[in-house]
Amino acid sequence: MHNRVDRRSRMAGFAATVADSVLVALSLVSVFADSLILMVIWEVTAVAYIVAAWLLSQRMTMRGASDSRTGIFQWLSWLMPLAASVAGINAALLALVGKSLVEDGYDVGGLRVLGVAGIIISWALLNASFVNVYMTLLDRAKPDAPPFHVPGEPHPDYPEMIYFSFTIGTSFSVSDVHVITRQARRAVLVHSVVAFFFNAIVVAAAFQVLQQIT
Questions:
Q1: Can you give the pLDDT at residue 5?
Q2: C-alpha to C-alpha distance for 193 and 209, rounded to whole angstroms
């Protein structure tokens, strides 16, 4: 029975790595191809990825399981969604402020809707990738040296790290979660800086769109 669980865990980790790779590939292609259809495909795939990741995290929390990926595959589990997020917002910005698609005859209003949706999806991917960062720190931590302290929760899991990550992504603050170790502080610092510039780019794009409207 234990071997069967380990096998399922390894298969789930392999499937997750494949999904990460496909998402990054679609993100890069959607940027360089400058295609509206590819951008729609990327957005649909990214939404499906986020929903699947959410459902998987809930299932793993109930079972008390952790991500089976180790070594480079464990780090790729957060690096790939992060790369996809960066590529995705690039494509979204092209749809919002670029002129090449408009010159090809696409509807301006439709491009803006897709662009806004792409930014929201990219933002969700960005913070979801850091959920994996924090879960990696938790999984690798020694029992007597946890990276985080969550009041009222002696054994934090995906729900706490989702809350923690999206709090940083929206307010650049760690809220009531205490960051204890040096590695955890580095991760939070990188997350805060990336989220700041991400939000700054979104504001700049919004100004560009408003200027085009007026």
A1: 42
A2: 25
- Name residue 150's beta-bridge partners: 153
pLDDT of residue 95: 61
CA contacts within 13 A on the Cβ side of 38: 18
d(Cα 191, Cα 46) in Å, to the nearest integer? 20
Is the Cα dihedral 174, 178, 184, 185 positive or negative? positive
Q: How far is CA 53 from the centre of its chain?
A: 10
pTM: 0.78
Query: Buried b / exposed e across 146-158, counting CB within 10 Å, b at 16+?
Result: bbbebeeeeebbb
Q: What amino acid is encoded at 185 in this protein? A: R
Please state the φ and ψ torsions of residue 213, each to the nearest 5 degrees.
-70, -45
Report yes or no: 147 and 141 within 8 Å, Cβ to Cβ.
Answer: yes
> For the chain (length 214 residues), average pLDDT per consecutive 10?
49 64 74 74 85 78 56 62 68 62 62 78 86 84 88 87 91 84 91 86 70 59
Quote the pLDDT of residue 1: 44
Q: How many residues does the chain have?
A: 214
